[in-house]
Amino acid sequence: MSPWLLVALWSLQAPAGTSRTLHVSPGGPLPTLTAALEAAAAGDTIVVRSGVYQEPEIVVRKRVTILGEGAPVLRGGDHQILRIVADSVTLRGLVFRDVSPSAVDDRAAIRVEGARGCRIEDNTVVNSYFGIYLAKAAGCAILGNRITGPATTESLTGNAIHSWSSEDLVIEGNVLRGHRDGLYFEFTTDTKVRDNVSTANLRYGIHFMFSHGCSYTGNRFIANRAGSAVMYSRGVVMEGNRFLESRGASIYGLLGKDLVDSRITGNLFASNTGGLYLEGVIRVEVRGNEFMSNGWGAVVMADAEGTRFERNRFQENSFDVSTNGANATTRFAENYWDRYPGYDLDGDGYGDVPFAPVRLFAFIVQQHDPALILQRSFFVSLLDAAERVAPILTPRMMEDARPSMAWPAPGIGQ
Amino acid sequence: MSAPRSVVEASGITKRFGKLDVLRGIDLSVPSGRITGLVGPNAAGKTTLIKSLLGLVRPDAGRLEVLGQPVNGDERYRHAIGYMPQAARFPENLTGVELLDMVRDLRGTPPSEDSELLDTFGLAPELAKPVRTLSGGTRQKLSAVVAFLFQPDLLILDEPTAGLDPVASGAFKEKLLATRERGASILLASHTLAELEEVADDIIFLLEGRVRFHGPVARLMSLTGFARLEKAVAALMRQGIS
Amino acid sequence: MSNAVKVLRYQLRDIVRNRWMLAYGLVLLALTEGLFRLGGDGGRVILSLLNVVLILVPLVALTFGTLYLYNAREFIELLLTQPVGRGAMFAGLWGGLALPLCLILLGGIGLPFLLHVAASPIPTRSLVVLLGTGCLLTAAFTAIAFLIALRFEDRARGFGSALVVWLICAVVYDGMVLLVVTTFRDYPLETPLLTLILLNPLDLGRVLLLLDFDVAALMGYTGAVFKRFLGTSLGIGVGLAALSAWTIVPLWFGLRRFRRRDF
Question: Which of B86, B94, B91 is CA-nearest to residue C74?
């Protein structure tokens, strides 16, 4: 009788309602996680001891807790490493390595498929095509994982955390780098994305589409090759994030397209070629953000409807705001502009004359990209001055009627 | 002092300023140890010739040697030359002391200085003042001091006594004679022919950019039959123009 | 000590008593200090000073430079009758102007930063870039001023020409560049545009500043040549070399004129 069968029999004899702990170790009675899963019953805990495990795709079909002890390594190859199809599975402290890229399927180190209530915590994923792939998942928490991709080319690298058609997720404290997108959401709703670090990815730090009612707070998106992109979504809250060092042609710290009823508040956009780009957005509130040392602080296309920029800080940008049409309807109020030349005689903390943040030169550069080389020339200063005296090209609507003299702006409601 | 036989050797020197032919072929050999007067009417080319000797003006053609050295841009021969321009112009903000220090500095440390003129002219109290506050005559005295300071082998003086009072002028002439006594050569451009008659051994007469006469004063007089230099030169001028 | 250094020393002694130099230093001091007093931190003060350096420094170098050479005529004539060569004379004259102008720039802008070091830490890198570019512009435009002063005997014409050169470099030239950019929008413009920039020392100085202060915006260029030139140290290298050439070439032509000149 094989030890395998012995264990299986033992597990069947176990009294119902008590959960057991199974141990996986190389050379032990349960040398593979697959074997342990066969042996386990719902509610059991499987402890995987230190070692390197090379198994065919591991499928978790039972409600179990899998814990790594001493950073055991699960190796992949040209297939997925672990797939969760059962509800309420916990995965903690494991190391996943080496899932080769594929043109046919979206292989991941960890795939969650149609499962609810999973908890994937403190794992490490190295050199995998996709990192954690959630499909039709719900109520899952993805916490404190470190996912490092091979950073080769965009087509040979999948996303670090990929979510499709899922809902009610919490994604918190993960460190994501070297993948195509750090965070990718499609048709994912009511999800909270908090305090993650997404950096040096080949495309976007965060990329989401058709994902309504999600909130993104306290994340850091640094030096991702194409910045971040949020598109075709409603009810998005982005707060307290940092978008840093995204540089290159048409690259923005945060690109927002077709967002509806969303808030972008208290974020920092610094040292990007473009800080924030908004196109086709409706009722987006941009409030209390800092735009520092960007090429373009904010680029707002003329098709934005009901967009409001309030109490933001614009400092040391080459261009604070630019747009593509004279009929832009975006409203600015109580922002701090380091270029504001006006005065505050009544001492209420707000400038007495309006400030038009779109310079004529920004307009020219928008249409004739090479003209940028004339930035800071005396001639261009004269042009800008002439435009201030007799505006002909820059949109009058885009004017801050009450520019703040300091940042944060005085008064309540910051 | 190893003076060459002649202090200036010039042949075929020409110089044009725009459309104006100022020097039209100067051939000269000025012997050493003598005071040579350079005379001629206005615009005869006296100052241009002097500036050529100093390297201030570049001749268009011809060969020029001063103290045995070709004048070709190498400045070292000027160590042995003292120069006093027609109207001394100094950097306005410098004081006399600074000016003298500067010239000393540029010349390096000479073996001995001849500051006799400084005492003769009683210039010492003026030296602390910026040059711009000094009168024309005082500046001219300062210029003379600078020219004689380093006991040069060749002194080139352009209208040196023009701004000097009679007392200073007299002292200056004595200085000229004393300088010749110590073996130096002096080239002296002047309109004051009476003065030249007192000190000059030789005369160079320049007219329209050419040397019309060069020789001892006595020969000029015997040539023209006049006993006074003034008349003799006037006679030369009439000959030249006719 | 070489004669060039001696000449430079006399010129320094003379020029420190010049009230225009004093005024230049005071203006820089007052501007920088004023920007600090208006509530700027070091970074903002530097951004405001960019335009000052790009406009004022070439203007001062050109106008002072021509007047200086005209005013130094007596000094030049006196020294050339002494055992001083023309090369040494010229080098000393130029150094005697460029050096104090650079020192005044460094002091006039640098001192307020030192005074405010407790309240606002010095943005060292940006300050070095600003002052370094200012000194290079001073060197180039004093050299150009010398060339102008040696070209025109008449000081009114020389001074007028210096102003015209400044107006061209600071305003007209860039207007022309903008015209080129908008007129030939459908043509590949990168190489011609960079060439145009190299031909104007003021633009060169400006682009050197852009490479530090607007690098995020410059990275937005789509063209490969721009990317290579502006996105790497190549731009800084070529810019520094070209700006140095704008000092050396005018000085060389100036020296040639100076050597041939009659005094």
Answer: B91
Smallest Cα distance from A318 to chain C, Å:
6
A273: nearest CB among C44, C193, C220: C220
| Banded model confidence at residue A93, pLDDT cuts 50, 70, 90 | very high
Task: List the single residue in A247, A316, A378 with the smallest CB-CB distance to C55.
Answer: A378
Number of H helices, E strands in chain B: 8, 10
Q: How many residue contacts between A and C have a Cβ separation below 8 Å?
A: 106
Reported as half-sphere exposure (CB side, CA atoms, 13 A), residue C83 has a value of 17
Please indicate if any CB of chain C lies within 8 Å of the CB of A405. Answer: no
Stretch B33-59: mean pLDDT: 90
Closest Cβ–Cβ partner in C18, C77, C83 for B79: C83
Q: Evaluate whether chains C and B are touching (3 or more beta carbon pairs less than 8 Å apart).
A: yes
Asked if A274 lies within 8 A of C185 by C-beta distance, the reply is no
A48-389 folds as Pectate Lyase C-like (2.160.20)
Query: Given CB atoms, is A376 within the 8 Å cutoff of chain C?
Result: yes
Query: Where exactly are the structural domains of chain A?
Result: 48-389
Who contacts C117 (Cβ-Cβ below 8 Å, separation ≥6)? none
Structural domains of chain B, with CATH: 6-241 (3.40.50.300)
Domain-wise residue ranges, chain C? 3-260
Sequence-distant (6+) residues with CB within 8 A of B39 are B46, B189, B190, B191, B193, B196, B203, B204, B205, B206, B233
Per-residue pLDDT, B217: 86
Neighboring chains of A (3 or more beta-carbon pairs < 8 A): C
Confidence class of residue A327 from pLDDT cuts 50, 70 and 90? Answer: low
Choose from B108-112, B150-154, C131-135 the range with maximum mean pLDDT: C131-135
Q: Mean pLDDT, chain C, as a whole number?
A: 90
Single-letter code of the amino acid located at A170 = V
User: Does B51 contact C263 at a Cβ distance shorter than 8 Å?
Assistant: yes
C259 close to B (CB below 8 A): yes
Closest CA to C32 of C173, C98, C145, C130: C130
CB under 8 Å to B242, separation ≥6 — which residues?
none
Q: Which of B106, B133, B145 to probe the C interface (max C CBs under 10 A)?
A: B106
Task: Return d(Cα A263, Cα A238) in angstroms, integer.
Answer: 6
C44, C178, C223 ranked by CB distance to A371: nearest: C178
How many other CB atoms sit within 10 Å of the CB of residue C131?
A: 19
Helical H runs in A14-154? Answer: 33-39
Chain-centroid distance, C-alpha B230: 20
Q: Are B90 and C74 in contact (CB under 8 A)?
A: yes
Residue B166: CB atoms within 10 A of its CB come to: 8
**A251–chain C Cβ distance below 8 A for any pair:** yes
Report the C-alpha gap between A89 and C181 in whole angstroms. 62
Q: Is A274 on the interface with C (CB under 8 A)?
A: yes
Question: Does the CB of A273 have a partner CB in chain C at under 8 Å?
Answer: yes
Arithmetic mean of pLDDT, A355-368 = 86
CB contact under 8 A, C260 and B91: no
What average pLDDT does range A326-355 have in this prediction?
Answer: 88
